[in-house]
Design a protein that fits this description.
Helix content is 1%, strand content 50%. By secondary structure, it is an all-beta fold. It has eleven domains: 122 residues, Jelly Rolls (Sandwich); 70 residues, Immunoglobulin-like (Sandwich), CATH 2.60.40; 66 residues, no CATH class; 66 residues, no CATH class; 65 residues, Immunoglobulin-like, CATH 2.60.40; 51 residues, no CATH class; 65 residues, Immunoglobulins (Immunoglobulin-like), CATH 2.60.40.10; 65 residues, no CATH class; and more.
């Protein structure tokens, strides 16, 4: 469920109004569906075409969002468009508007968008209107802004920029709205000052004058959605009058102020006074009555206020004691009132004071009714001794003592209870001691002294656990120096106890205080480690399991950690094991394993080439068996690849031994030589591989053979590897013919890098490739855009055969151009542009972009812009761009202060606001002129005058501005003091009249002597006929009071009170 937040801009919250909403199409629901845009709106015309009764008063592109649009559209309330502002459903209906209130856009950095609405009927001046509309911040804003306001106008407004409108809104909200989820209600109450037909909603201030709050979005332009706009008449026909009661003290005065919920209400008090406030000074409690009258509807409201008068209290004051020593206190006591305020600022009937010198104190006593009176009392101050105190020494260790000494007085009493000028103390912690010293006159003073008790160090040492025979390091901390029970005096000591031992250390800190602690070194015994073998004796090559005992983990001399550890020594070996018990202590055990030696069998190997037979032989044992099932000490084998054979020999004791014989089979080498292709006259290098030595059919014996055949030829090579094995291969050398080149060139003219060079290839094998040494390199038959110089071209045919040639591009000199210009002044077509030619070979010809037929180096009568001139000397053609800038003329402007005057003071101040002006001319509308920039002017007759200002600058540029001033009649009023409504046609009506009166603001009331209203009129042309409720006889012949209110044509309030006598 969405929440609704309301910001109020008036003193009165208007809710539940039943009046008609004057806004046409207030919720943007009446739209032209055919003109609704999917993308954003680009102009005020597009917006006005889409929605009825709403326009855009500037060049900003205000958008209308409608739920009928696809979500892929930018102007869908639920847009998924990449530039979307964030989803937000209209508050009611299907449509809403979005406004930009902050950030960059078409008027960097102060782009603005506005919505201009129209009323069904004009607002009535003087009437109160309730204005409401709803906004919601777009989700993706990077910043939220304030300054969402309303500007009222009597006609439709338009400003041809995207900048903030140059008007000041009558209503403006100055707090930042950050809610992007809910709709926020903005509400105003406004008293109309003109017959306004139109209103504009938006931010009328620059970014610099707008406050923002970071919101974490990605859109740098701040936008708010707008919906449900309401402007309606606030209804309140009868004024509610409020006056607060007053309470005063005897002899005081009270100001009674009446307020009304209707602007312009007039007041009449029971004292006869008028106006919203009166001042009264009653001697006793009195009640006053006030009646308020609505100046428009005539409704009245009455209330009363009581002024209560309270008597003054009788206040007395005393001091005890009235004479004190300096630094002591006296108690001041007041009586006769309810509350008290002393001249010291203290409050209460009794206070304590300690003046440094004799002082008179004043107390103001206030009764329960709030009335006050004063009394005074004197406190006399005698001098006191200056007492000193010291400690020696000033700091001690726990258990130490210090001597305290006092001076400056006759007798002393210490805070310890001791007396005398010197005492000894032994505090357990830092202590402040106070001594009170008394003089012979009985006045005393105190002094304090601190005895600092330094903290003894807290010594820390960690207990250690070691194995028998190890060393432990004990490290102490917490002090500056140390002393160990071993005699050591360093923070750390090393000890090697044979059994568990406790050590003591004493530490001394930087202030000499000591602390002691102990540390225990626990000594654990070493474990007894043993080994059980299985079996106890082996043959070489067999294995034995060794079982350790006495520990929980083991490490063998072999590096193993097994339990058991399996070993297979070839000779008798002693094995060691280190065992670790549960305390981490280690012990060692050993075992000697007897190994009986077996036969040492050997076997011969052989190396053969692929396809040869090898003989291998074994020795060292009695019998032999080979892994290929053959037996005997010697066998013949023919492997096709390198093969290893294993022979097992057995001696007379039954122990066996093995040996291996490897027959290496060398493969025949793979001799390889690649074919080659060369151009005619080139040398081909043939490279053989696969052997270590070679014999070529051409007679060579190296790895490579260089040959230069005149035609295609086949060559053979025999290669032998390092094993003496040989093989053969062949290669064909193909011989191709080279291309030929013919070259031509054209010159580079005007230093324009426009020379060319052309190469034509022949012979060889087409197609051909070309490579020029230009920068950048070119690879076409013709190289272009060349400066003068020598160039080399390389032509390569399809066989890769190349040929090179050199070509020269000759230079052809040109000319240079420079330019100058004068600006155009205020659209007078007086700009100048000129081109300067240097180095032309012939008389130059000119052509201008704005006038192709202008054959001149100078162009005149130009507007601001860029002009291109082409210069041709018959050999070179060059162009140059010339910029003609624009110099703005003056801007006219002035203000009138005041803009409405009357013949009582027919003078106004003309204040110049023009920009870049150097001369001024004014026509004042009455036939007179002025040439000062600012001046004071007086009119001789009433009327409405249009003042024209014409300003110019040094270049003759001018601008014009207009202002209208109204000169009203002088203000006068005539109020009769008597009339005779007897029907004789003479003086029958009490009818005040005058000049300079705004008849629309006229209000007159007549009261009888009891304060009853007998006549009310808001018609300037209507007077009182002396009657009441339509009957002239209802009012007797008597003296009546009148009250008249109106505004002058100058807008000034006027009020008149008086008496008129009704005669027969």
């Amino acid at each position: 469920m969405k929440k609704l937040y309301t910001f109020l801009f008036s003193l009165v919250l208007i809710s539940g109004l039943s009046a008609q909403n004057l806004v046409l199409n207030p919720s943007f629901e009446t739209v032209n569906s055919g003109s609704l845009k999917c993308s954003w709106y680009l102009s005020a015309a597009e917006y006005a075409a889409a929605v009825s009764n709403w326009t855009v008063p500037s060049n900003g592109s205000t958008d209308i969002f409608h739920t009928s649009l696809a979500t892929s559209c930018y102007c869908s309330p639920f847009s998924t468009h990449a530039s979307a502002n964030g989803p937000q459903a209209p508050r009611t209906g299907s449509s809403m508007t979005a406004l930009c209130t902050y950030g960059n856009g078409g008027c960097s950095p102060n782009y603005r968008e506005y919505a201009q609405g129209q009323l069904s009927s004009p607002m009535v001046p003087g009437q109160d209107y309730c204005i409401e509309f709803y906004v919601s911040m777009a989700d993706y804003n990077t910043r939220a802004s304030n300054n969402i306001g309303v500007y009222f106008a009597t006609s439709a407004q338009f400003q041809g920029t995207m900048c903030p409108m140059s008007v000041t809104p009558q209503l403006n909200y100055t707090s930042t709205i950050t809610d992007a989820t809910n709709w926020t209600l903005i509400s105003f109450t406004y008293t109309a000052t003109a017959a306004y037909d139109y209103f504009i909603i938006g931010n009328f201030y620059t970014d610099a004058a707008t406050s923002t709050t970071a919101t974490g979005g990605s859109r740098t332009v701040t936008r708010y959605y707008l919906d449900d706009v309401s402007i309606q008449l606030c209804s309140n026909p009868n004024p509610t009058i409020t006056v607060n009661d007053q309470t005063i003290c005897e002899g005081e005065s009270a100001t009674l102020t009446a307020t009304s919920d209707i602007a312009g209400t007039t007041f009449l008090w029971s004292t006869g006074g008028t106006g919203s406030s009166i001042t009264v000074s009653p001697a006793s409690t009195t009640t006053y009555t006030v009646t308020g009258t609505d100046p428009v509807g005539g409704g009245t409201g009455t209330t009363s206020a009581t002024v209560t008068v309270n008597p003054l209290p009788t206040v007395s004051a005393s001091a005890s004691p009235s004479t004190i020593c300096s630094g002591n206190s006296s108690t001041l006591t007041a009586s006769g009132a309810s509350t008290y305020v002393w001249s010291t600022g203290a409050t209460g009937s009794s206070i304590s004071v300690s003046p440094g010198t004799s002082t008179t104190y004043t107390v103001t006593g206030t009764s329960a009714a709030g009335c006050s009176n004063t009394a005074s009392v004197l406190v006399t101050v005698a001098s006191v001794p200056t007492v000193t105190a010291s400690a020696s020494p000033g700091s001690i260790c726990p258990g130490g003592s210090s001597t305290l000494t006092a001076g400056g007085a006759t007798t002393y009493t210490w805070s310890t209870g001791g007396t005398g000028s010197s005492i000894s103390v032994s505090p357990a912690s830092t202590t402040t001691y106070t001594v009170t010293g008394s003089s012979g006159a009985g006045c005393s003073n105190t002094a304090t002294v601190d005895v600092i008790v330094n903290t003894a160090p807290t010594i820390s040492v960690t207990n250690q656990t070691i194995c028998d025979g190890e060393t432990a390091t004990l490290t102490a901390s917490g002090a500056a120096i140390y002393s160990w029970s071993t005699g050591g005096n360093t923070p750390s000591i090393s000890v090697s106890p044979s059994s568990t031992t406790t050590y003591t250390v004493t530490g001394t800190n930087a202030v000499g205080c000591t602390g002691t602690t102990t540390a225990t070194v626990t000594v654990n015994p070493l474990p007894n480690i043993g080994i059980a073998p299985n079996p106890t004796t082996i043959c070489a090559g067999q294995s034995c399991d060794l079982f350790p005992a006495g520990g929980v983990s083991y490490v063998w001399s072999t590096g193993g950690t097994g339990n058991p550890e399996t070993v297979s020594p070839m000779t008798s070996t002693t094995y060691y094991v280190t065992g670790t018990d549960a305390n981490g202590c280690t012990g060692e055990g050993s075992f000697y394993l007897m190994v009986m030696a077996g036969p040492t069998v050997t076997a011969t190997g052989a190396t053969i080439c692929e396809g040869d037979i090898a003989n291998i032989t074994a020795s060292g044992a009695s019998t032999y068996e080979w892994d290929n099932t053959m037996t005997g000490s010697s066998i013949n084998v023919t492997p096709v690849i390198t093969t290893t054979y294993t022979v097992t020999g057995t001696d007379a004791a039954g122990c066996i031994g093995t040996a291996t014989s490897t027959v290496i089979v060398n493969a025949l080498p793979t001799i390889s030589v690649a074919d080659a292709m060369i151009c005619n006259g080139e040398t081909a290098t043939l490279s053989a591989s696969g052997g270590t030595s070679y014999n070529w059919s051409s007679g060579g014996t190296g790895v490579t053979e260089n040959v230069t055949p005149g035609s295609t030829t086949t060559y053979y090579v025999t290669g032998t590897d390092g094993n003496g094995c040989s093989n053969i291969d062949s290669a064909q050398v193909i011989v191709n013919q080279n291309p030929t080149i013919n070259v031509t060139s054209t010159s580079d003219y005007c230093d324009g890098n426009n020379g060319t060079a052309t190469a034509i290839a022949g012979s060889g094998l087409a197609p051909y490739t070309y490579s020029w040494n230009t920068s950048p390199a070119q690879n076409t038959p013709t190289a272009d855009n060349l400066p003068a110089g020598n160039y080399i071209v390389t032509v390569t045919d399809d066989n890769g055969c190349t040929e090179t040639a050199t070509v020269t591009v000759d230079p052809l000199a040109g000319f240079t151009l420079t330019s100058d210009s004068d600006p155009e002044h205020c659209d007078q077509l007086d700009g100048l542009a000129q081109v300067f030619v240097s180095g032309a070979q012939n008389t130059p010809m000119y052509s201008w972009s704005h006038n192709a037929g202008l054959n001149s180096d100078l162009a005149t009568g130009l507007s601001a812009g860029t002009y291109t001139v082409t210069v041709d000397d018959g050999q070179c053609i060059r162009t140059i761009d010339i910029d003609v800038s624009e110099m703005q003329g003056p801007t006219a402007g002035f203000i009138l202060n005041p803009s409405t005057i009357n013949m009582d003071d027919p003078t106004t101040n003309i204040i110049d606001q023009s920009i870049n002006a150097t001369s001024w001319y004014y026509e004042m509308g009455d036939g007179n002129t002025e040439t000062n920039s600012s001046f004071t002017y007086s009119y001789l007759e009433t009327g409405e005058y249009t003042i024209m200002q014409i300003v110019s600058d040094d270049y003759g540029c001018i601008d014009t501005a207009y202002q209208t001033i109204v000169v009203n009649e002088s203000f006068t009023i005539y109020i009769p003091n008597a009339f005779s409504p007897n029907g004789d046609g003479k003086n029958d009506i009490f009818h005040p009249f005058g000049t300079g009166i705004d008849a629309n603001t006229w209000h007159m009331r007549i009261y009888d002597r009891w304060g009853r209203t007998v006549f009310v009129s808001t018609d300037y042309n209507q007077g009182w006929d002396g009657g009441f409720e339509g009957d002239v006889n209802n009012c007797s012949q008597a003296v009546y009071s009148y009250y008249i209110f109106f505004k002058t044509t100058q807008g000034k309030d006027k009020e008149f009170y008086g008496r008129v006598t009704k005669l027969p």
